[in-house]
Specification:
Layout (H helix, E strand, L loop, with lengths): L6 E5 L2 E5 L3 H8 L4 H10 L2 E5 L2 E5 L2 H19 L6 H9 L4 H4 L18 E2 L4 E2 L4 H12 L2 E5 L6 H14 L5 E6 L15 H19 L2 H9 L3 E5 L11 E5 L7 H8 L7 E6 L13 H9 L5 E5 L9 H13 L2
Parallel strand pairs: 7-11, 7-12, 8-9, 8-10, 10-11
Antiparallel strand pairs: 1-2, 2-4, 3-4, 5-6
Amino acid sequence: MADDAVLITSVQNETRIEFPENRLLAGLCGEFDRNLTTIETDLSLQIVRRGNQLLLIGDEDSRARAGSILPALYNRLEQGRSVQTADILAELRMHVTKDMTAEPSGGKQLEMFRGGKIEIKTRKKLIEPRTEAQHAYVQALFKNQMAFGIGPAGTGKTYLAVAVGVSMFITGQVDKIILSRPAVEAGERLGFLPGDMKEKVDPYMQPLYDALNDFLPVKQMTKLIEDKAIEIAPLAFMRGRTLANAFVVLDEAQNATSMQMKMFLTRLGEGSRMVITGDRTQIDLPRGVKSGLADAERLLASIPKISFSHFTSKDVVRHPLVAAIVDAYDADTP
């Protein structure tokens, strides 16, 4: 059913939205109308259900936003997709600008940006950016040969980068995926780890395995790793290599030294894309050792085809408490 089957009319301080199917409307409202309550609380308006209609009562701006959000969520249900709290919060955060509806340079692979809606296809699920900053970041990943994602934990920097990498791999735009991060301990000494080299470094790489596991079936992921189509390795293993026709991600880049960062960035080969993610507030390098992420941002900001995307606590999608925690620590920073 098309979006225009949802009828919206406004009179004075009320907006009435009529939905064609009561069954889908029930899914939109949620159990005990909890979905509506989430929207009411965020937008400071009242939503009253009357049959197959929702009556919005509040100021014009709140009604306008709800009048865009509710049909968009209903459209998800028409497509056979669910509406969860995270989807509602994502719609509440999103303000798709006119720039998002224009197709960026990059050709056929960027058709997903038409209409302002972005969905990254992987083997296991569709991934949707949930904030304006995430939208802009995903655009930058497709548009630029080198992209930086900088911001606090839980903002989806690495998760979205790996999702885009998997999408490009399964559509044949790159031949392999290379994921790396510095093998730096987060403020504690773990001592000597048992096992061979892979067993020693795997604990440091586990977040990258976790992200991949969200996008690829386990058997396929294991086979691709065995065939070297997917590589997960410490930053130190990148020295001397030329990374061609690959989607390359450096995670936790704030823990790379300036020399390591230069070494990594100069590995970029023909047909490759490189993404560098990091959080400047979580540097685990020894005292006195400068983070290469800050140097890269200072030195490369004006170079064409290198983008810098910045995130704040408003972009945290991991859990609402994470955003509050980030804000509390930021406020206490001298």
